[in-house]
Amino acid sequence: NAGVTQTPKFQVLKTGQSMTLQCAQDMNHNSMYWYRQDPGMGLRLIYYSASEGTTDKGEVPNGYNVSRLNKREFSLRLESAAPSQTSVYFCATLRGLATYEQYFGPGTRLTVT
Amino acid sequence: SQQGEEDPQALSIQEGENATMNCSYKTSINNLQWYRQNSGRGLVHLILIRSNEREKHSGRLRVTLDTSKKSSSLLITASRAADTASYFCATDAGSNYQLIWGAGTKLIIKP
Question: Which residue from A57, A90, B25, B107 has the highest number of Cβ atoms inside 10 Å of its Cβ?
Fold first, then answer.
């Protein structure tokens, strides 16, 4: 029972390159989230998915796309990476419907040069 | 958008001392949660307090909530080196099960 897994752990991209960050959960929860965290900052929501087949924009969606492939997997795609997207990306799932408690993956550290 | 404001932004204390950090929020809530983030890691849920509770304990953690002032505090007693981390508050004021996050307090415990 791994909880929430993210791949890769680290990635370096050149400006303009594309990549997909993968997230999978084995907790059988409907809701999943993608956040970014810049140095010394809190979390900012990029996209979320309330259930399989649905996705919605969060606070900072520009430059990203997402896919909720099935209940387990929620991927985040950068189509044309920019240095401003250098950040640590966290995937999370909703652990408690009544409390909104979230369970986080270990993160992907992305550097765009 | 971030509705939580945490205070202080950084706190450095000696091992064994108590650490207190504060969180303020803007809109009405059903509950408020605290999370810990060790350097380079994902966030881990610590404790939740509901809007009808004033104080809650979990081990060395004590959380208080004052809904009239829209503020909460997290007290860590008898701090240890392993408590060195960033601490974030989050409220359930968002829609669609979204949490609204504070910017965090960075706690350093000196041996």
Answer: A90
Using CA atoms, how far apart are residues A62 and A48, in angstroms rounded to an integer? 14
Task: For chain B, say whether A87 makes contact (Cβ under 8 Å).
Answer: no
Name the maximum alpha-carbon separation found in chain B. 43
Q: Do B43 and A106 touch (CB under 8 A)?
A: no
**For residue A81, what are the contacts with CB-CB under 8 A and spacing of at least 6?**
A13, A14, A15, A16, A17, A18, A19, A110, A112
The string of pLDDT tens digits covering residues B7-58 is 888 999 999 999 999 999 998 898 999 999 998 789 999 999 999 999 999 9
Q: Inter-chain contact A45–B42, Cβ cutoff 8 Å? A: no
Q: What is the pLDDT of residues A46-87, one digit of tens each?
A: 999 999 999 999 999 999 999 998 999 999 999 999 999 999
Query: H or E stretch including A102?
Result: strand A102-104
Q: First-to-last CA distance in chain B?
A: 37
How far is the alpha carbon of A41 from chain B, nearest alpha carbon, in Å?
5
Picking from B29, B99, B107, B108 by the largest number of A CB atoms within 10 A of its own CB, the best residue to mutate is B99
Quick check: A42 and B2 CB within 8 A?
Answer: yes
Question: Measured between CB atoms, does A101 come within 8 Å of chain B?
Answer: yes
List all residues 6 or more positions away from B23 whose beta carbon is below 8 Å from its beta carbon.
B4, B5, B6, B7, B32, B34, B71, B72, B73, B74, B89, B102
Give residue for tokens 């791949």. Answer: A7
